[in-house]
Amino acid sequence: MLKRALTHRSYAYENGGLPTNERLEFLGDAVLGVVITTALFQNHPKLAEGQLAKLRASVVNMRALADVARRLGPGGIGPFLLLGRGEEATGGRDKASILADTLEALIGAIYLQYGLDTTAQVIHKLFDGLMAEAAMRGAGLDWKTSLQELTAGRGLGVPEYRIDEEGPDHAKRFTAWVIVAGKRYGGAQGGSKKEAEQRAAEAAWRELSGVQPESAAYAIAEAAGDTHKGSKARHTNADITETDTAEEPRPDDDDDAGQ
Q1: pTM of the entire predicted model
Q2: Residue of 29, 87, 133, 197 marked active site
């Protein structure tokens, strides 16, 4: 099951049409949505539907999921992805879309193996901090807007962004800094200018606000361990090995072709 969750379609196609993680991603997306939506509904009883939807979108989006995936353990889940040669050559191990999809696939795998209660514990450990931050960040619910609201409120002026780029056209990397009241923050990298700017804005917002991200390292293992003490199947990057790769039962007509 774990191996399936880490199998990108590019790897599957290059290895004889193996099952991909896309069905697990589909399932994990639904489970994640239910748990996050329920938490927001219960934690914010006075918020209207529209604001709840904005809060959810600020937590369950590609960039946020990718950042969670990068914080799972010392190196994130990127080193454990099964990728094809093309994705490997173009920096697929740090692509936000691939990391986000794989995190959802892992959530789907946990749900199938452990059930909803344990999966909800995992999701809360990974996302409760993000939900709390989203509620703090103001109407924009993205880092650049949040930083602008913060600097305006403190009389620090409008943030200014600087971008450097490097690498070949097929694998460009962008580094962004944000200048606030003459001080530079960030040096954050991303696969696009927008992603790099958002990361730089996040760094500045956190430093100015004094709020640091809660580490997601080993959250999956901790949550699974709460309910399944002694289980040999722990969903953490510390246990992503070839010995923990039991496959999901696969009907003969199960087609895991790419999207």
Answers
A1: 0.66
A2: 29
